Amino acid sequence: MWHLLEPLHAVLYYAPEAFEEAASLGYGVEERWPSYFPFRAAPLGAVGVERTASAFYGFSPRMVAEHIEPAWKTATPKAVLEARDRAIDRTYRAIFGDRVDSPELAEAAALARRASGFANTAGRPLAAANAELPWPEPAHLQLWRAATILREHRGDGHLAALLIADLDPAESLVSFAAIGAASVERFESRGWSPDEWAAARDRLTARGLVHPDGTATEAGRSLRQQVERHTDRLAAAPWQFLGPSDTARLVDLLGEFWVTVLGSGLLPSETTLGIGKV
């Protein structure tokens, strides 16, 4: 379900319509980060560097500061949330065309919204913040909102799994790159310096989790498998409550929209999420 829903959420951070909405608020659009941080953090309110870095976890605090410190001077969280909805409305209409008003999308939205209602948001700040927002009226915006709640619910749980594994933000990325989830170069987008990356690798090497060349040991692979199992367990409740029949129906309904998003060419071929690799 994560593999199916994540592209429906993540297209926000790459679509030209989203960049246009961000630019209308005054954000830079030469790269995606000036809009990514406010778009994702806005449900939390005008949060500062520490709270944003805590919720986003894997990003260097310097990178968070670079983008979140000016974010709320440029636009209020309310304005960002309104722009976010406009961006998704325009993006989905551009990608899906007439299918945006189809009964299949409406049914998928209703099922995804039901599933998101079963997401326990205790201890999950990003999921809770998105769940607390008023629901938009159009079905395609409800689909995106539900996908967002569910992916942030999973993401918040993933951070708990990383904490249990005693992996700090930099170590979480080094250990993930070590098992081949994505290239080291891809993880450079999270803002850690070469020295910070090397220091995290050295800490993991001392724990017997990573070889000096940066590849995972058997113990390192085992620990990452535990992280993924814990993440899956913590993310399972919405689908258990939705039930196997309705979950299977949602899978069938999402298929064409998932394929269309992937076929749009908007999403990168390699991400730091490890989709398709873990």
Q: Could you give a short description of this structure?
A:
The protein is mainly alpha-helical and 278 residues long. It has helices at residues 2-10, 16-25, 33-41, 49-56, 61-68, 71-74, 77-96, 103-117, 125-131, 139-164, 169-178, 184-187, 194-206, 218-235, 237-242, 244-263.
How would you describe this protein?
The protein has 278 residues and is mainly alpha-helical. It has helices spanning 2-10, 16-25, 33-41, 49-56, 61-68, 71-74, 77-96, 103-117, 125-131, 139-164, 169-178, 184-187, 194-206, 218-235, 237-242, 244-263. The two termini are 14 Å apart. The mean pLDDT is 96.
What brief labels describe this structure?
278 residues, mainly alpha, 16 helices
Order of helices and strands: HHHHHHHHHHHHHHHH
Overall 3D form: globular
Number of beta-strand segments: 0
Number of H/I helices: 16
Query: If you compute it from the alpha carbons, what radius of gyration comes out, rounded to the nearest whole angstrom?
Result: 19 Å
Q: Tell me the span between the first and last alpha carbons.
A: 14 Å
* Average residue pLDDT: 96
- Helix/strand class: mainly alpha
- Please indicate the percent range of residues in DSSP E strands (runs of 2 or more): under 5%
Uncertain regions spanning at least 5 consecutive residues: none
Q: How would you characterize the largest beta sheet?
A: none
Percent helix, as a range, is: 55-70%
